Amino acid sequence: xxxxxxxxxxxxxxxxxxxxxxxxxxxxxxxxxxxxxxxxxxxxxxxxxxxxxxxxxxxxxxxxxxxxxxxxxxxxxxxxxxxxxxxxxxxxxxxxxxxxxxxxxxxxxxxxxxxxxxxxxxxxxxxxxxxxxxxxxxxxxxxxxxxxxxxxxxxxxxxxxxxxxxxxxxxxxxxxxxxxxxxxxxxxxxxxxxxxxxxxxxxxxxxxxxxxxxxxxxxxxxxxxxxxxxxxxxxxxxxxxxxxxxxxxxxxxxxxxxxxxx
Length: 262
Prior knowledge:
It holds the Pfam family adh_short_C2. The chain is of the alpha/beta class. The protein is built from 8 helices and 7 strands, in the order E-H-E-H-E-H-E-H-E-H-E-H-H-H-E.
């Protein structure tokens, strides 16, 4: 399917690896010009080289840190210089450290709230007037299946990502008549470096092997396997498409049927 977004301009946050890198590649495959961001210049450059070698949408990158007080202005300037404007904003952030609710000390909570919630909302607000004025835009925010069914030992992630659910739904309602959509895409168990890290942490916490932790997690997934970055990225890219114009305020699960709620 042609998503009819060739020539559009997209910003994909936290795209040096994993889900962000996958989304950037999927959009570029549709002919979208993408700007990647993150804290690893070598990985960002390599991702851009791979995208540009395929010869569809062009890719560039900018170093940025979501926790930096100048994050929004840095990104705004880069978008202006490298893309000349914006049509698609993909909000993506790295996950916080594992832990229980008792581990959510004030300082740690404030630190991650800034990078995972405040920076996302502030950046979206910075680009929103131009998106509304041009009468077309896509805002896609990556969260976690933990906002549907809280994940054990990820209390900080469950809490902060859930805050974005309320924000996204409110935003989508407010801007629905402008031609700008706002949706969230929720990964379940997608095979990324993050999953490797979490499986290792759970193995240590439970005194089990990583292999046993992985096998138990797969057993709980009706699809019987972990998802791939490409599968997840394709779902996110669809929400950016012309065909998705009437989809807004939604939570799209990409979890192999793992969440048990309706």
